[in-house]
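pasting for the record
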Amino acid sequence: MHELETFKLIERISALLRSEERRKYATIGLQPVHGQVLEYLARCNRYSNTHAAVAEYLGLTKGTVSQSIQVLERKQYLEKSVDALDGRIFHLTLTAAGKRLIDELKPLDVFKQAESRISRQEVDSVGEALQNALGLLQKVNQSKSFGLCRSCHYFQVEQHHYQCGLTEQPLDRDDTDKICRDHLPTPNPFIDRE
């Protein structure tokens, strides 16, 4: 079956990337999950940088995420701050050391080497196919998309700024390039057909 072959290819690519990730993080005394937490926090917006959002995005328990956050906080790769409106919520942000670590370790060298050997058109085509596959899997699993702000149904362009239609708050230009926990995808004909 063609679908099963696609699954096997994705699974094999994932195994190779995880192996490379384990090797890189072991050299600095971290686990891949720590890198995944940092990578997520580097990509998410200010509405999505909480313990719960990290757990949801990575599909991990809150306990596992809390332990990982404690390790990263002790190593001074991230810091916590209390939410201005709700004192029960903590926001997580990367420190300068955390940002440097992400820059040093991502993307994986093995992936960069492989990507450099295929054409730009092939990379774009594979990327689009994988994006569509991810969207379908998220829809079937009824999981959140965590998509880019600017691709969200709630994203609005006002006269002099960008705005989130859900929170009704202005967005910085940098916000529009980040992923959001509350992302609502705009309709995609490949994913949304019944």
